[in-house]
Amino acid sequence: TAEDLKVAGAMTVLMKDSIKPNLVQSLEHSPVIDHGFPFANVAHGNNSVLADMVALKLADYVITESGFGADCGAEKLIDVVCRQSGLKLDAVVITCSIRALKMHGGAFVLKPGQKYDRELAEKENMPALVKGCENLKVHLENMLSFGIPVVVTVNRFTADRDKEIDFVCKYALDNGAYASVAIDPWAKGGEGCIGAAEAIVKACEEPNNFHLLYPDELSIKEKIETIATRIYRADGVDYSPLAEKRIKLYTKLGYDRLCINMAKTHLSLSHDPELKGVPKNYRIPVMDIRASVGAGFLYPLLGEMRTMPGLPSVPAFVPVDIDKTGKTVGLF
């Protein structure tokens, strides 16, 4: 039960006003609407449609963040959120960093829960950067395939070199980006992002042919295989006996009309967190498929995927509760 998991109080607090989007502010006092946003590796990875609709009534331009790489949050923003809400995107922004690209190029190893070699990450390594840009190219091609202009921003860190930044910006432009701009929000805040903001405004004014990746009429397998081959660049998909059983049941129940919300690692384009860069000659294993009928999607589990995010031994929600007067306690 919720009491056994020690989440009853926190759940009550959340549900009390859960339908209402939260208006918060950035460090520079710009308005931010924060509502929902489950993890993009195990869910759709975007804030609520209600938050988007409210924001669109209040501002000329609304930037909504999609979790993790474009293969996770951005694909789901389009094929899950936009499909169900009817919202259409005017542009996409892909943010990358020099050290992330060098990691994908093999300059150093990055594993969850382990420290990476900062010296290798910050060391100049143009061959690794060039190779790592192949990963950026796939994300760029994927987003362009939805018929909208793409702006690439390079998040500058203190150890980055101008020639590295210049190379990535030119690489992005050569591979179809509408614009590519270095940003420096950590050191300069909003002032360090003015060039990117101007490029995004111009991109939004461009004509586009925004469309979804697949139609609702495709079968469950066809939808899964479309995402796997076109977005993850896999050679194909293999289904476990359990997944095959689920597909037959869901099709019989009419759930084959629902969209697909992949549960996969965020550490690779593939299902395997060890496969960096642009994995080749591999197939996607679908171990199970579960239904979130109320939310309107099916979520296949790719590889050894767990849908419960990691938590500390005593999570921050444990002391949260609501007293007899309706006041929230235990937050601070």
Automatic annotation (TrEMBL):
InterPro entries listed in its UniProt record: Formate_THF_ligase (IPR000559), P-loop_NTPase (IPR027417)
Key words of the record: ATP-binding, Ligase, Nucleotide-binding, One-carbon metabolism
GO biological process: one-carbon metabolic process
UniProt GO molecular function: ATP binding; formate-tetrahydrofolate ligase activity
Pathway terms, separated by semicolons: One-carbon metabolism; tetrahydrofolate interconversion
Enzyme Commission number, as recorded: 6.3.4.3
Superkingdom of this protein's organism: Bacteria
Protein name: formate--tetrahydrofolate ligase
Organism: bacterium (Candidatus Ratteibacteria) CG01_land_8_20_14_3_00_40_19
